[in-house]
Amino acid sequence: MVDVLIVLGSRSDRDVAEKAAKVLDRAGIDYDVRVASAHRTPERIDDLIEEYEPDVKVYIAIAGLAAHLPGVIAAKTLKPVIAVPVEAKLGGLDALLSTVQMPPGVPVAVVGVDRGENAALLALQILALENEDTRSFLEEYREEMKKQVTRDDDTIKERFR
Q1: Farthest-apart Cα atoms in the chain, separation
Q2: How do the pLDDT tens digits run along the chain, 161 residues long?
Q3: How far is CA 72 from CA 32, 91, 138, in A?
Q4: pTM of the model
């Protein structure tokens, strides 16, 4: 059973998907990564949703340019959809605005441009609502971040003495 389905708008979004996959791997979450274009293969999106529902719990949709993929997925499921806008043109602003400005009634959560890791962390937060192991992973992850900031502070403090 797959908890998270990562859908890329095209193969060129692979690097962003790798960031998400790295976090999900570290957390021990089952996921799949697929490619489907909202414009070139809209029927493929239908097929993927049919294949993964009802088991999948969260979708991560990674797309650049017009970035309609997250909205198309959201229109076809009641599960949470997390959009990751990709920097392809205009610094990713086109994709960011496309995903942030969804019409009322079809919400999509949006993380920063190229922030696949944040999409995975948000997916983990959603999964943690019902999974104590995932919650524990997130608590440990945040504790590691705190320790890294402390180490960074010590290094910088010494450098500027």
Answers
A1: 62
A2: 899 999 999 999 999 999 999 999 999 999 999 999 999 999 999 999 999 999 999 999 999 988 999 999 999 999 999 999 999 888 899 999 999 998 899 999 999 999 999 999 999 999 999 999 999 999 999 999 999 999 999 999 998 98
A3: 19, 23, 29
A4: 0.94
Look up residue 53 and give its two tokens.
Answer: 């529902």
Question: What does the block give as tokens for 43?
Answer: 């029927």
